[in-house]
Design a protein that fits this description.
Layout (H helix, E strand, L loop, with lengths): L14 H17 L5 E2 L17 H10 L5 E4 L8 H9 L2 E2 L8 E4 L24 E5 L2 E4 L6 E4 L7 E6 L5 H8 L8 E6 L2 E5 L4 E3 L1
Parallel strand pairs: 2-3, 2-4, 4-5, 5-9
Antiparallel strand pairs: 1-10, 6-8, 7-8, 7-11, 9-10
Length: 207
Amino acid sequence: MQTRLKDLGRAFAQPALCSQNVFRHVLTALSLPGQVQTLDRTGALAGMQEPRGAHPSAAAILLALLDQDCKLWLSPGFDDSDAAAWLRFHTGCVVVPEAADADFCWVACGAELPGLSQLAQGSAEYPDISATCIVQVDMLQAQGAEASWTLSGPGVNGCTQIQVGGLASDFVVQRRESQTHFPCGVDLLFTHGQTLVGLPRSTLIEG
């Protein structure tokens, strides 16, 4: 979809401060898996006009993390959005057609998340060259009575519960299979509205 530059939404009003704010939330989310983080419209999201179909938190994460050396794949749900043009203009990132080639994947809805085995996994020598997926989901709810997952592992005090809505029914099975190759694997950030939750490759899921 062709988008004129003048029609693209704004990035952060204060790029350095807002990026640092978002980056801290991302680090916290990945350090404390299962704990919901919320980005503030008057703080981390100040001045940002996210693309069509984008969760504010997802757009802010990518705006803060991407640069000209990053390869980004967008799921089909963004085909009619200005998301690709918005990120290319504001970050200089390269948009690639295949998810397997991407450093970052932006997934418009949980059902469009590629099979985890199809994504860059890194290697035993360089586990850090794996993909990071930002996945927009239907719901994020921590410590709910109907929580579907119980998380444990590094950064989790005992265990914690979380409900993530809209993912494929075999996601947990895929996740377990991918962890047999640890420290290789894919890190995920789930977003809903202005909230986000981290699921690093080291986190165990029961549910």
